[in-house]
Amino acid sequence: MIDKQFKNLEEQIEILKYKGLAINDEKYAKKILLRENYFFISGYRYPFVRSNVDKHFLEGVTFEELYSLFLFDRHIRNIFFKNLLVIENNLKSIFSYQLSKKYGYKEKYYLKAKNFTNDKSKQRQVNDLIKKMKRQIRINGAQHTATAHYMSNYGYVPLWILVKVLSFGIVGELFSIMKYEDQVDICNFYKIPLEEFLVYLPILSNYRNLCAHEDILYENRTQKHIKGTTYHQFLNIPKDENNEYKRGTNDLFALLIIMKRMLSKEEFKNMCIELEKEIENLTYNLHSIKIEKILDRMGFPENYLELANASIERSETNEK
Fold it and tell me: How remote is the C-alpha of 231 from its chain's centroid?
């Protein structure tokens, strides 16, 4: 196995220049490479190279252009992240309301195995998750302000407080072990079928974590695919030879469709306005390639903005 050797800033610059990247201001480029990390910036080179085999840059690509894509991804990542947090908070609130209303607001009541699925194949998962949630109560009972307040003043932690310290992943797992009727009641609030909701939650959790750790967002693909919706039809998304949509199934546009279905109308419209501004800024900064190349890698159709104003009822978003 060949070791990757450390390269200083001068060597990093030379590598980029050797690969055909135009660097007009080396001092500026070194400053950015030091602040942002050569590895992460070079991760944005793919739209600008000749091919996946010949990884030399296209003629005329500049360091500033490469960095503009890096900044674009950071900015849209922040937009997606803050709205994913809104969805996360909404889900936690709805989950805790549903379970507290039905099973009680003290952990000795709502954390009983009988309150969850009786599917024998999931009993170990049920018991493990209950242990995880009890562990969070022990850990955060004195450390987290809200849990500490309830523990010291009332001697218990209600579920609507506990969910605040649960990860999105645990919340998604919690949904997966709920009783069928509780799952359906929650899905009815969003008017999303249960089978689709079960796919949406891990996708939302994965993207939430991706954004939190500043990984590359714009061209990310998920292993899970969402089903076609009326929004795909509304936007005239083309299909492939297998009658599957070419966009909006496992790309960033698929995430946008999920968020369209789970955010309020005003929240989603504001999100799209912010995304449009960032796409316009990137369009201005691109010179060697067209913005359509980036949109394609995102899975965004050219008419993506029509999604913001689509007034299709949530109950009609299932494709027949």
Answer: 19
